[in-house]
């Protein structure tokens, strides 16, 4: 296997004072990555890299970018689906509220009707007893009972009318909402089905790009591949960035001239001091 992680890189002092500082930053970054990757900090400052390695890194980057795009798409579609579910659940809550109102009005009606019946029976009994009373006092007491009963009956009948109206209006609202709910549920079901269809083709693509990444990754030194994955994780997927006119196209910051020269040479692993991405020289189109 080709030795990419060569320990004998160009000497530090070729960069001069500023270059040495940049190289120290590079060393620090690599040390950090190595601590995470290898759990030791034995790392050389300059690491040799070939033009072929850069080409492989670029291919890997292409597949990586695709997987990031698809991952973003999939998480967005998952978000869309859960937003649709929430909308339906909200509607269902409102529907259930009206259903409960309808049921409550129905219960009130039945209870009032029952009370009217009991009251009527009481009036009837009192009227029967009225025919058999012996004293005036008894007569007056029963008559008062009958009058109170009739008064209560009127109250109950007014109440029943009110409950019947409430029941009718709640029933109307509930039925309308139920129809709207059914329509919405159907629309959401078909929207989710469309989302799933779109997602399934993207899931297939994602598998394809992941396999591609694995295949391409085999052409890289495992350490460099680890570094690639580490940077991908911390940098939102963009690992390899071109440099144009001393500017890193990953973070649009200037890089030190000495590092730029090294990027132009294309023989060393150079990382952007600002965004930690692996830099390469983009050929003019
Ligand atoms: Zn950068």
Helix content: over 70%
What is the architecture of the domain at 77-219 at the second tier of CATH?
Orthogonal Bundle
Residue fraction in strands: under 5%
- Round the mean pLDDT to the nearest integer and report it: 85
Poorly predicted segments = 1-23, 37-45
- Annotation, overall tally of beta strands: 3
Largest sheet composition: 3 strands, mixed
CATH class of the domain at 77-219: Mainly Alpha
Report what the structure shows.
With 285 residues, the chain is mostly helical. It has a domain at 77-219: Helix Hairpins, CATH 1.10.287.1490. 73% of the residues lie in helices and 4% in strands. The protein contains five helices and three strands; from the N terminus they run ααααββαβ. The chain has a three-stranded mixed β-sheet with strand order 2-1-3. α2 packs antiparallel against α3. Mean pLDDT is 85; it is low at 1-23 and 37-45. Bound molecules: zinc ion. Residues 241, 248, 250-251, 253, 272, 274-275, 277 line the site of zinc ion.
Please describe the structure with a list of short key phrases separated by commas or semicolons.
285 residues; Helix Hairpins; 5 helices; 4% strand; binds zinc ion; single chain
SSE blueprint:
Elements: H1 16-38, H2 51-130, H3 136-217, H4 222-234, E1 240-244, E2 247-248, H5 257-265, E3 278-281
Parallel strand pairs: 1-3
Antiparallel strand pairs: 1-2
Helix pairs in contact: 2-3
Bound molecules: zinc ion.
Zinc ion binds next to loops.
């Amino acid at each position: 296997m080709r030795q990419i992680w060569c320990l004998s890189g160009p000497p530090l002092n070729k960069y001069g004072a500023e270059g040495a500082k940049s190289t120290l930053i590079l060393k620090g970054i690599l040390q950090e990555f190595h601590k995470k990757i290898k759990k030791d900090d034995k790392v050389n400052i300059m690491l040799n890299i070939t033009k072929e390695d850069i080409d492989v890194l670029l291919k890997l980057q292409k597949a990586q970018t695709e997987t990031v795009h698809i991952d973003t798409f999939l998480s967005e579609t998952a978000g869309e689906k859960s937003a649709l579910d929430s909308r339906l659940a909200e509607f269902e809550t409102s529907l259930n509220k009206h259903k409960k109102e309808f049921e409550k009005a129905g219960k009130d009606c039945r209870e009032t009707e029952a009370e009217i019946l009991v009251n009527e029976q009481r009036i009837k009994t009192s009227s029967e007893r009225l025919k058999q009373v012996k004293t005036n006092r008894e007569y007056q007491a029963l008559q008062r009972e009958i009058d109170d009963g009739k008064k209560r009956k009127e109250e109950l009948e007014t109440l029943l009318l009110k409950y019947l109206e409430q029941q009718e209006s709640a029933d109307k609202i509930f039925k309308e909402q139920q129809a709207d709910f059914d329509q919405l549920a159907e629309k959401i079901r078909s929207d989710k089905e469309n989302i799933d269809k779109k997602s399934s083709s993207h899931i297939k693509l994602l598998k394809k790009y992941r396999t591609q990444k694995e295949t391409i990754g085999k052409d890289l030194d495992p350490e460099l591949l680890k570094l690639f994955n580490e940077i991908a994780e911390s940098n939102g997927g963009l690992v390899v960035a071109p440099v144009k006119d001393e500017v890193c196209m990953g973070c649009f910051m200037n890089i030190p001239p000495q590092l730029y020269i090294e990027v132009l040479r294309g023989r060393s692993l150079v990382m952007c001091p600002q965004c930690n991405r692996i830099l390469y020289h983009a050929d003019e189109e």
